Amino acid sequence: MKTFKCGACGSTVYFENVQCLRCGHALGFRPDKLEIRTLVSSGDGLYREYKKGAGVRLRYCANEVHGVCNWLVRADSQSQFCSACELNRTIPNLADPANVLAWGVFERAKKRLAYSLLRLGLPLDGAVVGKAPLTFDFLNDALTGHLDGVITIAVGEADAVERERQRQAMAEAYRSMLGHLRHESGHYYWMLLIDGTNNIDRFRALFGDEREDYVAALERHHALGPPADWSLRHVSAYASSHPWEDWAETWAHYLHMIDALDTAAVHRLEPRLGRFSSGNAWGLRPFDVYRSESFDALIKRWVPLTLALNDINRSMGHADFYPFVIPDVAATKLAFVHRVIREAMSQ
Fold this sequence. Notes:
The protein is of the alpha+beta class. It has eight helices and 13 strands.
């Protein structure tokens, strides 16, 4: 995730900011530009960009009133909602303050997912290939999962205590709202980028035959656990349960990797020879993990970055930043995800 600059005072501002803490100007995220922009009020709840003259008039997404969105919409848009909030199909009853807090956790994570998908140039509507659009249900008393383009997230996943209880019960190394969203989006993009395409044979060679009974495979996994040698082929134990889950877990880890590397690049952090160097290390040439780097270049940076950050987390008494090991077979699967996405970009 990039950082941004306030257009009025030049201070560093961040993806979730709605106001510059130095000069007080309003800020908002323009999804069409993938940038935080500094705003000046033009009355009636409308804004223009700082020093842009008349320019395009903008307004905040209607969900800004709930404190869960800082994305902008063109004043002439037919929708009250930004392109990310438009993806919501169902949200919980906002008369309950606890639901509003939980929804904020969900929206912050979903915005980061949407940002990555937009930077990768991936479609949010599968209509172009005869598939359903991407939509979200954020529900009480629901099971987290994906079905035909609808990603359902249980409201309880926004509760840190409940999420940790679930993590321990499922013997997971990692569990977060953003992790859920990235994983479930993997199921959606399997529909768009793999199913019925020229990629299916290569997918089956790497991940296995997805036509295996899915329900039976999950029941077996939950009853018996993963095979003893799962760590030789998968990024996580759950990935060993079925080829669809292997793909979704691998997809999620690819998004983890590129977003963290993008953030490291912004802050000019790169582990070399077992320690961080700074200054000109990232400045030698442009580094765009979303668009230009080869997979080999990404993984060569990712592994030492995770080792260094794991060590730093331990020095603070925290759990590992990235509690996973990527075996060679899983790295090949990550490279396949990388290639499929880059091919989709070029179409």
